[in-house]
Design brief:
It is built from 19 helices and three strands. It has helices at about 10-15, 40-50, 65-75, 85-95, 100-125, 175-185, 205-245, 250-265, 265-275, 280, 285-290, 295-320, 325-335, 335-340, 345-355, 360-365, 365-375, 375-390, 410-420, and strands spanning about 135-140, 160-165, 205. It has a three-stranded mixed sheet with strand order 1-2-3, with helices on both faces. β2, α6 and β3 form a beta-alpha-beta unit. The two termini are about 25 Å apart.
Length: about 425
Amino acid sequence: MDIQPIQLFNFNKKFFNGEKPSNFKGRPEKIGYASIRGWEDAIKHWEMLKNAKFLDVHSDKEFPYYKSIREDNYSFLEKLKSYTDKSEFIQRFCAFTGFPNLREVSTKIDSTFTECAQNAARSLNYTTYGYPYKIVDSGYDPTCSVGLKKAFPGSDLDKGYVIIEGGSPYISDNDAINIFKGKLWETLDQRIVSLNHPETAIEVQTVPQIKSKIQKLDEITKNFLDKGLNTIGAATGAVIGNLLLGPFGVPLGLAFGALINSGMTDKYIKIKASDETNPYWAGEFNREIAKQLNSSEERENAKNFAFFIETVEANLKLNSKGKYADIFTMIKESPFVLNSNVTQIAAWLERINGGYLKTKLRNREKLEKDFKSMATNEKYELVKDVIKSSSNDQSSKFSKYFKNDDDIKGRYDRLLDALR
């Protein structure tokens, strides 16, 4: 799984702000099923795993034994013993998911997410009594496995987001978002794209919410940049003025200070455009903005919004076709968005364009060819792990396809601590 510490949300507490869908329990539900007599029964059981409630991972830290419920729900995979049953199951798994053609898998993940989001918006409209909502934009981190067309079935969407627009006097924006997220939870096929990866969630915001947050953070950003530049200019002017003699000393000092100021205005933009992928150093602007905020709640909100809006901005830069709403103009012109750099998406894209690729994704490039040459038993073992990876419960046997090169969450700890 490609965890980017973008949305370090506790899903149980923060995915839903208010009412939760009736089938969200914060723990996996056990599937009751008859005996597995062959591949037909196994396929029927696998089809049940499309429902997120049977794979829920979001209270594992508090209740580790929940993992055993998921293990029981996956146990049908161990019931197939014969060559014929395994072969038939593999065939149907591949036909449904596109595996091992990872470009096809990734395309299906993208289309499944988009279709499910559209359906969630339509479901939301049934509750708003003639005040329809529409999806303005949706997407995910373009540097993740889905964006790079190297995803496995059941992958998550790194930094996945949906922006909705509409309004009803009957429900608040937060309530509308909760209804929308509830529909995603209930209907997104976990066999294709999973919501059950730790510390990731689809972020949903309304256009008014985004505008309000940008306005507040832009005001703070402008004050911070103006204060910093004025301080630098005044200090430089004073130093140069003291060094120079005659009536030209002070004017020359101020002019020199203004010249330095003009070079400082794009300091953080240059960092963002560089190949700096160390989160702490790349996020210098966000660390400075955090210092300007008065409460831990404000800092938490600014941090989370930065992860969200940077992904929106990255996708806007990659493909602006059809994105004409005023919110996109606001994003493109926002000083906060322009300087914010907690994700380093631009830097990672530059590295990827230069030939960089995670080891596990490089290994996946050879998978389609390797899979065809595998014996049926080995194919089946890999398919089992791919299915279990929907909730990070796969074995270590095929870790070369799953394991990250480093502890990505740990890499972000220093920056996240500074933003709190």
